[in-house]
């Protein structure tokens, strides 16, 4: 199995520890991982802002970088959903379609493709798990609480394999943090209030760490935590599953 490692630009620039943990975790699980060095932004910020017609260059480069891999894996649900829904190229649409079908968010890849049943990780801390909207409603990595249906959580099932971890209960298990990509810029006040409510739920239940599959959401909450003067930290789920908790 040969996997192309897709690292979103904001992870590369601000949270390289999440990228390194993803690489190490996949390699521990016996996967051959290749990082295409020429990769750049997938184009999601432009598309979210109404300028999808300007993402052709991003699409062409993404196809060039990731064509030919068995799978493409990224530690970001929102970027994966963007590629799955919006990667197109008029000149090579067949290739674009093939690449779209091979892109996976990390925890979905671990549960659905590798079918991981155990992990040699230890993390003796109280952890609040944030269910990101893109992953939940777009990629269906966990169930939505408003549905009358059996509940599931792919990230939750993986965290349950970590020795010593205590997942704290939340009042609203799948409420949006308010980040929403460019929403946090266009609607700053609403975004900040939503983020404060989300963070307060974790703090109320004694979380020492907040984790999730999207560093973007965690980045938003991290800013709120720092402004509160809180000692609670954020960690991408890959860092916990890999046993490398250093930010």
UniProtKB/TrEMBL annotation:
Residues 3-83, 127-221 form the Cysteine-rich domain. It holds the Pfam family CCG. GO terms for molecular function: oxidoreductase activity. InterPro entries: Cys_rich_dom. One of its GO terms (cellular component) is cytosol. PANTHER family: LACTATE UTILIZATION PROTEIN A, UNCHARACTERIZED PROTEIN YKGE. This is (Fe-S)-binding protein. It comes from Mucilaginibacter mali.
């Amino acid at each position: 199995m040969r996997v192309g490692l897709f690292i979103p630009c904001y992870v590369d620039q601000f949270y390289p520890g999440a990228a390194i943990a993803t690489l190490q975790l996949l390699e521990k699980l016996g996967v051959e991982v290749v990082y295409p060095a020429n990769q750049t932004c997938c184009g999601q910020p432009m598309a979210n802002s109404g300028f999808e017609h300007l993402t052709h260059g991003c699409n062409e480069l993404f196809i060039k970088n990731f064509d030919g891999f068995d799978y493409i894996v990224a530690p970001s649900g929102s970027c994966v959903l963007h590629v799955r829904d919006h990667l197109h190229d008029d000149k090579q649409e067949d290739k674009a379609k093939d690449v779209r079908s091979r892109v996976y968010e990390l925890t979905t890849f671990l549960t659905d493709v590798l079918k991981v049943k155990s992990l040699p990780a230890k993390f003796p801390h109280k952890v609040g798990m944030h269910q990101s909207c893109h992953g939940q409603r777009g990629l269906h990595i966990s169930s939505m609480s408003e549905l009358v249906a059996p509940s599931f959580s792919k990230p939750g099932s993986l965290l349950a394999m970590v020795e010593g971890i205590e997942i704290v209960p939340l009042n609203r298990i799948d409420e949006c943090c308010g980040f929403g990509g460019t929403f946090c810029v266009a609607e700053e006040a609403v975004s900040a209030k939503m983020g404060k409510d989300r963070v307060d739920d974790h703090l109320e239940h004694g979380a020492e760490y907040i984790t999730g599959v999207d560093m973007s959401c965690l980045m938003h909450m991290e800013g709120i935590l720092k402004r509160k003067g809180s000692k609670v930290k954020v960690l991408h789920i890959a860092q916990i599953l890999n046993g490398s908790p250093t930010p």
